[in-house]
Amino acid sequence: MPTVIETLSTLGIVPVVVVEKPEVGEQLAKALLDGGLPCMEITFRTDAAVEALRQIANKFPEITLGAGTVLNVEQATMALDAGAKFIVSPGLNRKVVEYCLSKNAIIIPGVAIPTDIEVALDMGLETLKLFPAEALGGVEYLKALGGPYKKVKFIPTGGIQQSNLLNYLSQQNVVACGGSWMVRPDLIKEEKFNEIHRLTQEAIDIMLGFELKHIGINCPDESMALANAQQLSNLIRFPIKEGASSVFVGSSFEITKKQFPGSHGHIAIGTNSIIRAVAVLERRGYKVRPETKSEKNGKPISVYLEEEIAGFAIHLLQN
Description:
Blueprint: H1 4-11, E1 13-17, H2 25-34, E2 39-43, H3 49-59, E3 64-68, H4 73-82, E4 86-89, H5 94-102, E5 106-111, H6 114-122, E6 127-130, H7 133-136, H8 138-146, E7 153-156, H9 162-169, E8 177-179, H10 185-189, H11 193-208, E9 211-217, H12 222-236, E10 240-242, E11 246-249, E12 253-256, E13 265-271, H13 274-283, E14 294-296, E15 299-309, E16 312-318
Parallel strand pairs: 1-2, 1-8, 2-3, 3-4, 4-5, 5-6, 6-7, 9-12, 13-16
Antiparallel strand pairs: 9-13, 10-11, 11-12, 14-15, 15-16
Helix pairs in contact: 2-11, 3-4
């Protein structure tokens, strides 16, 4: 079973929520869950936080539920008792960190400067919240921190929107991003859960960045592949580029020299993150073929799904 940090990494986005009334918590959780994001961080900025945590934890155990803006041990205790799976604090509070570690609870404290990071490392923590991320310098600041602190991973929060989400997620030292644009307080107050659902789906689509890369067409042997590639090239005047196992016609068509996955061929779809794409698609009911997974430098660069569409396999490629 993946750890909480591993789960947050595959999710990519942590909705940071302010709840004024505990009774809206379940509707909010359902909107996020149905939107494809089984995760949320309920902040201790209101008195409704504890009860909202408790209700959501009881009804939606599949949600990776966290408590945020935890300022003291008392709040950490209430959050864990209510069912929070991880604790987030805006700063590096030694008492909160030590308490959570004593309970074997996941604690992600906020840091802002190198001194904070080094204190956290000394306490055995390597996954930290960078807050307030944009005000501190955003992506450029993260890049700078990545030099001396190569083992440290961050969950940047503060000022992250759809417009800069991908810039953050593309950084090697970012686990996930905390954000509230899909769960803005006004949307929750006005109970616009359909809009929260839509914004959640939109955020996931932006994170994954699916795009058609090429169409693969299966041929039984090399001679058939070359003949079909030449015929297609004559038709549309795309250049031919032959490889060891296939022939490309332009960049849009791949004619294979042997049977690849798929009855007729494959549809290659690029994505910003194969790991996150697989996690999202598995939650939608799709499965991957593990034996087709390819890696480069220890990271996945391609994989096929089990399902076919009209005789075509789906081939995910890392952008």
